[in-house]
Amino acid sequence: MKKPARFITLEGGDGSGKSTQIKLLVAALQQRGIDALATREPGGSKGAEEIRKLVLTGEPGRWDVMTETLLMFAARSDNVAKAIKPALAAKTWVICDRFTDSTYAYQGAGGGLARETIRRMETLVLGDFRPDLTLILDIPTDVGIARTHGRANDETRFEKFNIEFHNRLRAAYLAIARRDPQRCVVIDASGDSDAIARTIWNTVAKRFRLK
Q: Does the pTM exceed 0.85?
């Protein structure tokens, strides 16, 4: 009998290596006969990808924090309805690059929006839907920002925010992990990519009793 499909999210600041590690985790699951889907936020569904263009391009001041948060939740709502929940219903594991924790970090700690405001939006949009496991890839802020330099795309809006903003993001993610240790595991993402992938796999395998 197939194990229940799981919803796993990877979180962390810019340059923490989430995209690479998601590919490796999906491949590791598939090699063991587990159907797995990679998705991302904002994005993952057709409508959410359109919103992604609005949020991740342009200058830092393009949106005020409330508008930005509403756009993030609009994209999240579409991704959950059109991609994540259908995949889970089909017994496919879903590995998502960012989820609501990023809103608490970026728009909350980074942008100054009250946690309670975000929590109310989360309840309205998601109800009690939450990840089964969240892996927070932690890396020194300056190292992460250095990794983002020279990326060949125009999705650089958040990378243009100052170092203080990114320091607040890192602190926020670590605070989220402390508040919810049953769901969140902090992964040191400063080392070799293969070693990080092994740590992630061991964490997932232990949590869900995989071989």
A: yes
